[in-house]
Amino acid sequence: MKVRSAVPDDAEAITRIYNEGIDEGAATFQTRHRSPEEVRAWFDGRHPIVAVEDNGVMIAFAAALPYSDEEPCAGVAEAVVYVTRSGRRRRAGHLALKALIDECRKAGLWKLVGRILPENIASRGLVGALDFREVGVHRFHGKVDGEWKDMILVERLIRENL
Known about the structure:
Blueprint: E1 2-5, H1 11-24, H2 36-40, E2 49-54, E3 57-66, E4 76-83, H3 92-106, E5 111-116, H4 121-129, E6 133-144, E7 147-157
Parallel strand pairs: 4-5
Antiparallel strand pairs: 1-2, 2-3, 3-4, 5-7, 6-7
């Protein structure tokens, strides 16, 4: 597997992986598919996005998305990681998130935050292995198929940039 910085031309592959995650419903509350144009807007020159490829095909990505437009929070980003079905249990998510943390360090960001559904054990294990800590729970955060769901909040400091 190869890890690299993603570029705007990767928007279609990232969209495919992200929409697959939406369809599965285990990683996000999102129900509306995203378009490549919406994903292309993630490439703002400030927030890194990385891709993991296997034999030239993208199987995972991790992105740092803006957290707040308030200046004091300029160094905080929301980290998202999505892996195709075929890329799971092969450490593609680990490679993507580790590379994203390194790129965020280089970009001067000082904190990554995330939200994980409690039943998403794989994601909780992934972020825990890369020094994220669970900092709280949003109770009854959203309804999925008529059922209330909580959301676990995680964060990882990038101490070199504090």
